[in-house]
Amino acid sequence: MLYDVAVVGSGFSAIAVTINLLHLLPASTSIAVVGDDPGFGRGTAYRTEFYVHRLNVPAGRMSVVPEKPDDFVEWLEEHMKQVSADGFASRGDYGLYLRDRLASLLRGHERRARVDFVKAKATNCTQCSKAELVFHLDNGDELSARNVVLCLGIGNADLPLAAGKIEAVERRIVRNPWRLSWLSKVGPSETICILGSGLTMIDQVLALRVHGHRGLIRVLSRRGLLPHAHPPADRRAPAVKPELGRSREISALLAGLRKQVRDGADWRGLMDGLRPVTQELWQQLTKEQRARFLRHGLAWWNIHRHRIAPQISSRVDALKRDGIVTIHAGFLKTIREGPRGALVSYRERQSRQLRSFNADWIVNCTGMERAGVAHSPLLQQMQRRGLIAADELGLGLSVDTDSRVLGLQEEPQPGLYAVGALTAGQFWEITAVPDIRIQAKSVASAIAETLRV
Q: Which InterPro entries match (predicted)?
């Protein structure tokens, strides 16, 4: 069967594209959704069942449908969840909301496009032409479609150490903390070393506490920076329009923003004011300016831009005050077996001195791998064949401003699109729900238009 559209992936980007396609395509069309994740649409972020795992964006901005901004808030009210539009709902509830919204569309199948869910992974693209794209699946089947949307997300970053510097401690290392079965193996008083101090670290600390862990948690990252918090709703400042000069040098942009804060602007309001223009601003930067930002400004951007719910920040602050969580700033050097578990050695950022501590478990929370290709056999195969090209700074795939995937000669591949984090090289700000839902609708609208021709 030749499908009109194939959506490849199982996370939020995939469900957002599918929902928009169902709104836009006529009943005569067909959609295949290809992925082997049983929790389709929820992905890693929204599959969690821990109530302490909260959204990092207020509920009022989390509707999956751009033209219905109150949709998630209404769902919360219908299900008697005590969360206002300014509050931070649990991520598990958001996953249930996505499931319900898709299910309600599928129930109207007689007036919607046909949808087939194919529980398999696409492993090989054997044809990419104007007529169709053909994929081999890991179940032995072949799938053909006129249009394909890649919604594969990105994988976990590896440990920042060469294999030779990890001596005989593999059994102590949790390389993917989102495989939560590791929590059941941790003793309540064992010492945990978490590599990385961003949002994933916050989630794992909270998960450990809910699971009964009461031992020490040592957090090691290069700068020792933790995400800032959203203020309580009654102290939340309105968005402030950034006053951007003509220069796009990173130092000039930063100087302008700092001046606004010195003149009285709330920095959180200023960051919120940047959001509507971030993609446009990113596209105005040269390759050198983008590289400079990634090298010098990324860590600071992340902690100011990707903030956590105030109640979550309070929990983490209390653990730091009580000495349960300790933050170390430095560069990881080696992990080797010692007389009291793993011995973690690092070079302290300020003093440059070599320091070490013991840990029973090493948890990799260094974030997501930047390129977005290494984790996917399909993308690796497509790259080898020249069907896709990596972004020149390693930020996902090379795509144009319409999210069309580009080949090695920077030509749009017919009928091939990408949505979500894989398109960060073109859009930068494309990992959060408010941005992905707009991109998903844009791509779905473009596909719907081609099918009408």
A: FAD/NAD-bd_sf, HpyO/CreE_NAD-binding, L-asp_N-monooxygenase_NS-form
